[in-house]
Structures are given as structure tokens and as C-alpha cells.
Design goal:
With 172 residues, the protein is mainly α. Helix content is 83%, strand content 0%. The chain has a domain of 93 residues.
Length: 172
């Protein structure tokens, strides 16, 4: 039985070796798993720190950019307001100049029309005087001086004021 006992003992020794190796593997796996969890935890903490830092930097840059943009906007508004005021001032001056020029043109046009109307009335007065003179001469030529029509005295012709037309009527 010695061989059987030896084989039994070898078998028990091998089983103990396998168990020791399994124990070592189990211990190694546990250590690796613990190490991996620690690394993951450190990575997570590092990542959270970096994300927090990036967000803080982004917020800071955003606020700085906002302040710069607000300053630029304020300067732009002031510049635009000043330029618009200047432009409106120029337009007002131009409007006044155009109004004065138009007023002058209207006054000149009125004066020219008044002069033209005055000239027309003068020409009409001269024409009426010539027409009345022609009428009298024609009447004397046709009827002679013995005609019984009353001849009214000629009113003085004022070239500035139109005179109403008078017709000689026979006395009956």
C-alpha cells in the first residue's frame, strides 16, 4: 500500500499546490482589482478637477470677453450717436439752405410774374388806347365830324391800371 499511500500523498500535495496557486491567483486578482479601482478613482478625481478647472477658466474668459464686448459696444454706441448727430446737423443745415434757396427762387418767380403781369397790363393799356384812337379815326373817316354820336372825352390812360372799355352809344 505504500505506492497507493505515496500516490495519495502526492495527490494531496498537488491539490495543496493547486489550492495555493488558486489562493495566489485570487490574491493577485484582488490586488489588481483594488489597484484598478484606485486608479479609476484617481482618474475620476483628476478628471473632475480638470473639468472644474476648464469650466472656471471658460467662465473667467467669458466674463472678460463680455466686459471687453460691453466696452466696445459702449464706444460704438457713443461713436454712432455722435456721427448720427453730426449727420442730422448737416441735414438740418442743408435743409435750411435748400429752404432759403427755394424761398429766394419763389420770391424771384413772384417778382418775375408780377413784372410780367404789369408789362401785360401796360401792353394792354397801350393796345386799348391805340384801339380807341383807331376807333375814333375810323368813326370820323366813316361818319365825318357831323355825326351826332356823342363822343365822350378820353380818359387818361394809366398803363399800370387796366381801364374798362367804353363804347360810344348814340343819343336818341
Amino acid at each position: 500500500m505504500a505506492l497507493k499511500d505515496k500516490w495519495q500523498q502526492d495527490r494531496i500535495g498537488r491539490q495543496q499546490g493547486v489550492q495555493e496557486r488558486q489562493q495566489q491567483v485570487q490574491t493577485t486578482l484582488s490586488l489588481w482589482q483594488q489597484e484598478r479601482q484606485n486608479q479609476a478613482s484617481e482618474f475620476r478625481e483628476d478628471l473632475e478637477y480638470r473639468v472644474t478647472d476648464l469650466l472656471a477658466n471658460y467662465q473667467k474668459q467669458r466674463l472678460e470677453a463680455r466686459e471687453t464686448l460691453l466696452e466696445d459696444l459702449a464706444i460704438f454706441r457713443q461713436t454712432l450717436y455722435r456721427e448720427v448727430e453730426e449727420y442730422l446737423g448737416e441735414l438740418d443745415i442743408l435743409h435750411q439752405q435748400m429752404a432759403a434757396q427755394l424761398q429766394q427762387q419763389l420770391q424771384q418767380s413772384r417778382t418775375e410774374r408780377k413784372d410780367a403781369v404789369q408789362k401785360l397790363f401796360e401792353d394792354l393799356g397801350v393796345f386799348r388806347a391805340e384801339l380807341q384812337d383807331y376807333h375814333l379815326k375810323l368813326q370820323q373817316t366813316v361818319w365825318g365830324s357831323s355825326h351826332r354820336h356823342s363822343i365822350k372825352p378820353q380818359p387818361t390812360v394809366n398803363p399800370g391800371v387796366p381801364q374798362p372799355a367804353t363804347l360810344d352809344q348814340p343819343q336818341g
